[in-house]
Records
---
Amino acid sequence: MSSSRSPWSKRSLTAQAMGHVDPITKAVVPPIHVATTYIRDEDNAYSSGYVYGRPDNATIREAEGVLAMLEEAEAGALLFSSGMAAATAVFQALNPGDHIVASKVMYWALRNWLMTEAVRWGLAVDFVETDDLDALRAVVVPGRTKLLWVETPSNPLWTITDIAAVAEIAHAAGARLAVDSTTASPVHTRPLNLGADIVMHAATKVLNGHSDVVAGALAGAKADEFWAKVASIRKMQGAILGPFEAYLLMRGMRTLHVRTAAQAKSALELAQRFSAHPKVARVLYPGLPQHPGHDIAARQMEGGFGYMLSIQVTGGEAAAISTAAKVRLWKRATSLGGVESLVEHRASIEGPGTPCPSDLLRLSTGIEDVEDLYRDLDEALRVS
Ligand SMILES: *Cc1c(COP(=O)(O)O)cnc(C)c1O
């Protein structure tokens, strides 16, 4: 459902979760539908459209409606039990022998899955720097490459890939483009409008925003055969999100625009201030003019450059780990996109073979007072 059919903005529609009111009680918060089974009509049909809990659920559909509206997804949205379940459903909809090309710098667990399970499944996988269009053109094989998978801004260097340009390369080769837009959020970027076929979110992150739900989502540009295959995989493999989680996700999404605006504003301020910090060698944030992807980001992102940034500390790996150990307000934890700010030494968690520099700290900016966030990290840097 597109907001173009509504007189209200996406922000208004999201705040009211599409304005749904329970028809019986007139409650402004819809009930959570937990039933696993539904009564059949006397003529043996299922006129309600619901049959069983594994394929579908009314609470799921309500949350999917919000996401489909946000992403302007003609095919609608599908919620999964995690971001990984959403992403892997897309790859499993391909056939053994198909060639895929993915961003070299991307979410580590998915990169691992592609290098192991996807290969076992019979997919041929190439990783390239998808911000380098010539490198991308060189590895795409027309007719054989079926999917390009791009993450932008990508973990943890916040590399920016030009979605419109990559969509053109994919489509010229007869391939689809899927974009992991988790860190951009539907507020800052709408990949489907830029030519992508599928957009994926780890809804665990900023979509829910409260670090209390693991969820994933896909939204599709076209209700074609491939999209139907992905939906069938969710149904057959039981990868759907539970109704309680869908309800929590919908509650979280109501404040998405307010949270992302505040988080992006603070992230930009932190990026600017830490750029001038004596203990910081480099700040990686697409909102900074010196970031290599800044011009493309300025074109393809709206209303800010997101809540994620990284800093490289002058003292190297030991100083980075020590800084993360000394913060008091920032929380030393993995994940991102929540209202609480998180700091993580990524190289430790990614292990050998990571493209992540060892002196790098990944920062997920929350909604706390930005002055407190600066002061806490500044003090930890100075004593490390
Ligand atoms: C967290 C994350 C994922 C995986 O999502 P889960 O819900 O943890 O399975 C995928 N991509 C990105 C960019 C992420 O940050």
Note: The pocket of pyridoxal-5'-phosphate is lined by residues 82-84, 107, 110, 151, 155, 180, 182-183, 202, 204-205, 214, 216, 336 (CB under 6 Å).
---
Amino acid sequence: MSRAFNFSAGPAALPLEVLERAKAELTDYKGTGMSVMEMSHRSKQYMAIIEGAEANLRTLMGIPSNYKVLFLQGGASSQFAMVPLNLFTAKKKADYVNTGLWSKKAIAEAKRYGNIRVVASSEDDTFSYIPELSASMFDPDADYAHITTNNTIYGTLFPELPETGNVPLVADMSSNILSQVYDVSKFGLIYAGAQKNIGPAGLAIIIVREDLLEGRGLDFCPVMFHYKSHADNGSMYNTPPTYGIYMAGLVFEWLLEKGGLEAMEKINRDKAALLYDFLDKSSLFSATVKGSSRSIMNVPFVTGSDELDNAFIAGAEKRNLKTLRGHRTVGGMRASIYNAMPVEGIKTLISYMEEFEREHSK
Ligand SMILES: *Cc1c(COP(=O)(O)O)cnc(C)c1O
């Protein structure tokens, strides 16, 4: 068997142990004589899978009991609409921080339903930093304030959460959920598409404070976009993405076996430091993000020459270092190093970079 070191930003690498277990259980799940894919979502066996997944996610993230966990379809992008459709009050106003393409999409969608104020932006410098935020920048009368905790394309991470007082903080955490410890009680709502750091595409996870499900929302919100329809039915208002939830559940078990999010955060910080330390010393490669805004999940870097970037990526493919091309708006390379990327993957990448640097610095 040959497994690549897959640096894809998403859908992204999954832990081999998880894939092996799914393979072992694929055609006959625990003696049921059927695959999880073939199982009624209301069966006893499936209920144990979804309830187990939720319980383990609650343990991992320390989710307080006054928060609902929803397993929905539609990716993170549906949340760009669901958040305003559900969280607007009669005021219909919200504050957004613009830190990249995903923020921009969230802002554009929310603008269709209400008054959106962009409180800060890093667009002036290709989103290569997280703007300074202070409590006074946020409207105390807004229905909610929205951030993108980790910016997948540009490789930036909020070094700390903004202080928004009583205004519920909403976070698109698609590319760094489960990568570090967050205090869930600081948020009104967290959402994430699964395909970066949780499991296969097709599943989105929403963690929402219960009081936000009452007395808010726009009348015309479609029932499938209504959080409460799903919350009141244990994510079974309709058929949930059953296999994706099963896979996410296996990833949660794997994370618990690894020691939980505190242990993962340490591993992730160490992994990212290896790569950034190399980039900061390199005479050929450099990171596009500086200082405290650096992501520990997505690391964009460049040589400064398109020709060398292309040669580097072609050579990487031959060495089984896959999907390193950067997003078209940034160029160069991007190494996405989610939970499932082993430290050996980073070390192999760095030794290839050293070799490439030696060859091209003459
Ligand atoms: C990938 C990504 C999205 C879009 O996710 P989909 O599931 O494809 O809709 C949104 N936000 C962030 C931060 C992402 O990384």
Note: The chain has two domains: 16-257, 261-359.
